[in-house]
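Q: Fold this one first, please.
A: Sequence and structure below.
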Amino acid sequence: MLLCSDLYNHMPSHLKPINHVSPSLCFFLFLVMMIYGNNIVVILISLGKGFIAINTQIATAPEDMIRLEKPTVEDGSAMWELVEHSTLDQNSAYKYIMMCEYFAETCVVAKVDKELVGFITAFIPPERPDVVFVWQIGVDSSQQGKGLASKLLNELIHREACEDIRFVEATVTPTNKASQALFRKLARTHNTTCDVSEFFTKDLFPNDTHEEELNFRIGPIERA
């Protein structure tokens, strides 16, 4: 039987709780849960009557951390490949390379080590300098459900190039509930409105399979 001090000393350093637990305060220290998807370690102690959570810690190795940065032209093909393996509308590889070259200030890529796992392509319409238009958001299947799309949007909004931005706009099809929820969440996060209106009607597209595109306008957004 290990006392909590013994168990603590045998734990890997990157899994130890932030605050040392004194042996005099507990009988046993249990590692009861490790959720590998979010790399969350929960430590519980026994105090005689049930268990009390005393600490949580993100146990993510530095090399596994997601970096958000401006894209380079070398990222264009990886963006294209990510979209190819998703349900997103795939544009030409040339389009992604062009966005990386000429709109890097308003595009964001997410990387784990050197692997691209997400991106945003966006631009500021010349005639509306207070708007950033989000063209496309892509997240690799390995990172879905972890809030990466929201982090990408937040990174975009706080870019120096977007310091005069007060509105975020994007077009979303009626059946794309995930994107609709994402932009409504953005509005709630910034305590502002999300206005939805007709934009590109179905008859504008060259085939009958493309849905209409609704315009989502989030704002005004106040920068902290």
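Q: Good. Now the second chain.
A: Here it is, same layout.
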Amino acid sequence: MSPLLFGAGLVVLNLVTSARSQKIERLSGSGDQPLFRGADRHDFAIMIPPGGTECFWQFAHQTGYFYFSYEVQRTVGMSHDRHVAATAHNPQGFLIDTSQDVRGQINFSTQETGFYQLCLNNQHNHFGSVQVYLNFGVFYEGPETDHKQKERKQLNDTLDAIEDSTQKVQNNIFHMWRYYNFARMRKMADFFLTHSNYNYVNWWSTAQSLVIILSGILQLYFLKRLFNVPTTTDTKKPRC
């Protein structure tokens, strides 16, 4: 009985091993399906320390369109220079484009598949941090957007027209989403600027009020001393 159970266990083990090996081959096989496909859109804010550099890597396929926009929302520290340096490199490490401003964009077509590097350098501020809002990603036009589809289906004229209209609507929605992110960046930058000006006006008004009150007290004190008449006695009389 025990040899029979031992043989059955070996059969089950072989089946599990073969199934796992087939699964690994399907995942690692070189087919039309790409080995990696990450998120295509990102928007967030980061803090860059004084003189620091922050880099990000975005995966993109060939024949795509890469967009990258940034805006410095506020500064924290002694320095108030809002300029940062932004650079974009291709998967081979070569520089594609650079931008040095308070806000800017870097847009280009992806000529090869791989990880594209984006870096932000706070080289203009050695005594202050900056908060930068980022919006970057990749979009594809046409049938290249669906990498799971191995071949394009043959459609009739009506379905082709519907597909073209849907693709145009999708592209318009995507560009409207980008404009919405631009508005969000400007809104947050304006909010931090308004808040900073509000605090500046409050502190400056408080300081001026204290100076006015102190100067009034000092003026009253010195005026009172001018009209202060010393008392005279038999032993203490004013001299001529």
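Q: Anything worth noting on the second one?
A: Residues 50 and 126 are 5 Å apart (CA to CA).
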